[in-house]
Prior knowledge:
Number of helices: 45
Mean pLDDT: 86
Structural class: mainly alpha
Radius of gyration: 41 Å
Helix content: 55-70%
Amino acid sequence: xxxxxxxxxxxxxxxxxxxxxxxxxxxxxxxxxxxxxxxxxxxxxxxxxxxxxxxxxxxxxxxxxxxxxxxxxxxxxxxxxxxxxxxxxxxxxxxxxxxxxxxxxxxxxxxxxxxxxxxxxxxxxxxxxxxxxxxxxxxxxxxxxxxxxxxxxxxxxxxxxxxxxxxxxxxxxxxxxxxxxxxxxxxxxxxxxxxxxxxxxxxxxxxxxxxxxxxxxxxxxxxxxxxxxxxxxxxxxxxxxxxxxxxxxxxxxxxxxxxxxxxxxxxxxxxxxxxxxxxxxxxxxxxxxxxxxxxxxxxxxxxxxxxxxxxxxxxxxxxxxxxxxxxxxxxxxxxxxxxxxxxxxxxxxxxxxxxxxxxxxxxxxxxxxxxxxxxxxxxxxxxxxxxxxxxxxxxxxxxxxxxxxxxxxxxxxxxxxxxxxxxxxxxxxxxxxxxxxxxxxxxxxxxxxxxxxxxxxxxxxxxxxxxxxxxxxxxxxxxxxxxxxxxxxxxxxxxxxxxxxxxxxxxxxxxxxxxxxxxxxxxxxxxxxxxxxxxxxxxxxxxxxxxxxxxxxxxxxxxxxxxxxxxxxxxxxxxxxxxxxxxxxxxxxxxxxxxxxxxxxxxxxxxxxxxxxxxxxxxxxxxxxxxxxxxxxxxxxxxxxxxxxxxxxxxxxxxxxxxxxxxxxxxxxxxxxxxxxxxxxxxxxxxxxxxxxxxxxxxxxxxxxxxxxxxxxxxxxxxxxxxxxxxxxxxxxxxxxxxxxxxxxxxxxxxxxxxxxxxxxxxxxxxxxxxxxxxxxxxxxxxxxxxxxxxxxxxxxxxxxxxxxxxxxxxxxxxxxxxxxxxxxxxxxxx
Length: 831
């Protein structure tokens, strides 16, 4: 860079003390092919005559210039250049020591030399007050700064090899990290490390090698103005220094201006590239400054940490807030900080940050006030010791009774949030709805600014109320609250609550028969968990269970088992009673899909005593699965006993079970009424099962066309959500007979049913050349007995559009009638 720079007019080598500026230029000058004039400046050179005399001496190579050599005509540059024969590189070292305006004007005069016979290398700790902007704008300025001079690990290794010494890669890396490649700091640290062969000094953030500290004190700290020195000392507790926070800590409104000045002066202060107005100190300087703070102002450090913690907390930077809070060692302050700002971290990607902070609180301090006792309760909850939480909750509630209502709000709300979480884990869903309703009412009445974590608490309460409503079988209300909780979680940064809401919305969609929607929610939860590297947190369990349920309905058993495995391997600590039971229900349904009803029955019997007493939907779900097991075992009477007395209030899935039970018992009128009601209810899985039942009923009654038509309706509905399980759990011999009849009537086969039952005929791959996608959809219905109007209804298009597609299909297949088009399509492998 120097070789390139001296081909132009000006090169600036600028960095703080000890970065090797002078060493660099001296080593370069020894190898440079041309003449080099060197002048090291000091305070004496603030006199123009001294500067001029020494400069001419340097240019002459040490010979004192004669006064007769200059007649005084022209400017300073002209008088100097008359002494120069040929091209000479002029090095001015320590330019920062010169402040006299006349001398600076003389140097500026040299900058404007258009002959370039005296290219200049300026070596300075700061950028000198010279018109370098003009040279920079012209593209004639080369700058070498601290980033260029910093040693890399490889260069540090080379420095050691000069003295036949070596360090391990780890030791070198730690030294480079501590010094940031600063030449003097690196050399002194390496010397000390080699002397002791221990890296304890480097690893210990409370100190630096004594030789480094001495150098920084003498060369940097003592030369600073008192105001700048105090600013650096008081902000040394920070890893990075936002200028606004510097103003907060110093009470001075000029923090950014001072830090900008120090950065420009290369006083081991640099601007952070992340955002404007943020600065960082060299690690070793920061350590020296912290030592000064401890010695000169020992009582100030705690005060500074407290103000810093609150400043970060109010801006949502809770990781930094907690770190500075703990540094105060004021545990009452830490308790208030956690309770007022940090509790929502338990359901965010930064959960570990809060848990670590809670563990830092000494055990003997937790009984001193309500906030610390609540911190202990949250730590017990995070560790899964739910039973022990109750004791601390009681203590906190008792302590709060001594405070005025307005004074206890910030502690009372997180206390109730914790109570709601415990209630949910135990499975008392009616109590969960009541508690969260109270929390939401309290949050609605809170004044702005009273609760810094109000958005997060609201997201938690909305989601928990939605979960409570879900398990108490108020599905429409649960839908509203879960959606509200999902939206609030996304805007408040409570990612684990967002995952949970997605999972429960998926369960809701599954119960309503919308497999595609349920799968989308499950995938959304899984993607969020993967993006945040939180695939194993407890809040992922509902989404994984939804995925397993959907895959079971689609008979993708490998995928179902994998999703169930993910659900069972989430960190259910503390365990949630409802989800534990639900995971067993999912396992039972998987066994049923594998045609192992006896194993499923045994599994359901094992969990009967574990069902939470106040989660009606869970009990209903178990009874539904038990009914499907009974039907698979051709034992319809227990099903009738469960549902006959409440036939009008049954869900579509329960109606199907009761209808199938009546079908097995030969009560055809009752069976048909229930199955038709469920088949037209709009829930895909129940509707598919209902129409299969109606196909079997028609077959029993000898209505051949009716059985084929019902099976076609089942297939059409199954195709929409890729539903497969109902075809396997039906009466297989009889449904196989219906499939054969359908083939006989239409010269084809019912694709879904035939595939599930292993009856799909061997055909070549479909080659729908010339047919549009919509025409292929219409073609798939032509083998059935559905009318054009019914096909139009199933596809969601008009009758005229269906008829137009039929005419186009006939034309492209060379057919004149529907049956002929079907036969021709089979011959071509299109069906």
